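Private note to self, pasted from the team thread so I don't lose it. Backbone tokens:
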């Protein structure tokens, strides 16, 4: 479920999708995203080898990640922005998010977040630690999914992906994912030991702030909110590693 939902890697469909499977998938999200992080790293290596401008290399690397995840999280970011920018009526906001189109708020948010991501990764490439920045940021963003699906987080709707995964991850397991991610990030090559954990911390902080806002505004999480948290977390982590 983790690989099939979060990546384009061809895998068999899960035989059963219940809350236990859903919670496990959210915990395994960073492992499922390793191919995406590897793709971003390879693009950075290739861009540096042929002396592409850092901005072009960063755009191609993040484009590869978006392609490898079907643009799922970017779609969620745009829909969430549209919902939060819509009527203060909860039902109307959720209806806006359910539609397949993107309004001006969603488009603008998508553009601004992508500009931050690409610009920050370009800065990391110029500072000669673009590979580490790409890998840490891509994986840190996916790590936040377990936090956003921890027990106590309600679904905004009674159906959909959000209803399946909301509250499905034990709090202790979600905390363990965050601690392991921070610990492993301390060993990212080319970075001072504290920079990787700081990037993970900022990714979690921004995703948590968005989660808090959405639960207050929408009454809980949806699949779109989860995707928005991933992209916001990636942007935050890249900013932390941009110089």
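Design output:
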């Amino acid at each position: 479920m983790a690989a099939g939902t979060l990546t384009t890697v061809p895998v068999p469909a899960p035989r059963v999708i219940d809350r236990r499977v859903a919670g496990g998938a959210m915990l395994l999200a960073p492992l499922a995203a390793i191919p995406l992080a590897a793709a971003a790293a390879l693009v950075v290596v290739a861009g540096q080898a042929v002396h592409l401008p850092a901005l072009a290399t960063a755009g191609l690397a993040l484009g590869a990640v978006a392609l490898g995840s079907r643009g799922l999280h970017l779609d969620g970011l745009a829909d969430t922005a549209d919902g939060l920018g819509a009527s203060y009526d909860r039902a109307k906001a959720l209806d806006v998010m359910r539609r397949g189109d993107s309004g001006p708020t969603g488009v603008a948010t998508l553009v601004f977040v992508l500009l931050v991501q690409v610009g920050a990764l370009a800065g990391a490439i110029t500072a000669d630690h673009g590979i580490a920045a790409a890998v840490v940021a891509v994986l840190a963003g996916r790590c936040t999914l377990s936090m956003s699906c921890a027990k106590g987080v309600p679904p905004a709707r009674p159906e959909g992906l959000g209803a399946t995964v909301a509250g499905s991850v034990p709090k202790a397991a979600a905390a363990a994912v965050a601690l392991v991610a921070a610990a492993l990030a301390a060993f990212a090559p080319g970075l001072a030991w504290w920079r990787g954990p700081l990037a993970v911390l900022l990714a979690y902080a921004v995703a948590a702030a968005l989660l808090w806002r959405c639960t207050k505004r929408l009454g809980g999480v949806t699949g779109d909110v989860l995707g928005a948290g991933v992209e916001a977390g990636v942007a935050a982590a890249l900013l932390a590693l941009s110089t």
